[in-house]
Amino acid sequence: MTVEFEILQLGHPQLRQPAKPVEAILDPAFQRQLDDLFGFVMEKGGMGIAAPQVGISQQFFIMSSHPNERYPYAPDVEPFAVINPTILEVSDGQSKDWEGCLSLPGIRGLVPRADEIAVRFYNRDGELRETRYQGFLARVFQHEFDHLQGTVFLDRVETTREVMMEQEWRCRVAAQLS
Ligand code: NI
């Protein structure tokens, strides 16, 4: 059975608080929370969700990239947890692409992000991972990482003219992608 989480909406102060590191990754209560969040994000069809979005002020998020109607070019990746992450390096090269967020439903923004990042984090088994992401996965990682600092994608758009309502975005942008 899927556990329901309340997704905090923009304006909620907790969405703006920097999160604290996870202290006991193997703790059964934490593992259970991860399982619940995995189920929840799969059901919502999101590309990721960060703990602060569901009122848990801790440094972890789930990446769950898969192609869908909105992001036909998204790579298909088995969902995984990213715990206590650090971004070690960002490429000079940046690209802009449209982002959305469960905490800002109905809004899309054109967000510049580094094309490639080198990162370090713990997986849910408590193992330290060092890896690089490019393109879409790098974008999702940076978006979710921002949530851990209290930042949302809207903070990063360069002009309000690059913000659209979901309905218009679907007609104008998503239609061109598929
Ligand atoms: Ni988000």
Outline the structure in words.
This protein has 178 residues and is α+β, with helices and mostly antiparallel strands. The chain has helices at 28-44, 135-149, 166-177; strands at residues 48-50, 60-63, 80-90, 94-99, 107-114, 116-122, 128-134, 163-165. The protein is built from three helices and eight strands, in the order H-E-E-E-E-E-E-E-H-E-H. It has a five-stranded antiparallel sheet with strand order 1-2-3-6-7. Strands 4-5-8 form a three-stranded antiparallel sheet. It is globular. The model has no long low-confidence stretch (mean pLDDT 93). The site of nickel (II) ion (NI) has 4 residues, from helix 2. Nickel (II) ion binds at residues 101, 103, 143, 147.
Secondary-structure blueprint of this entry?
Blueprint: H1 28-44, E1 48-50, E2 60-63, E3 80-90, E4 94-99, E5 107-114, E6 116-122, E7 128-134, H2 135-149, E8 163-165, H3 166-177
Bound molecules: nickel (II) ion (NI).
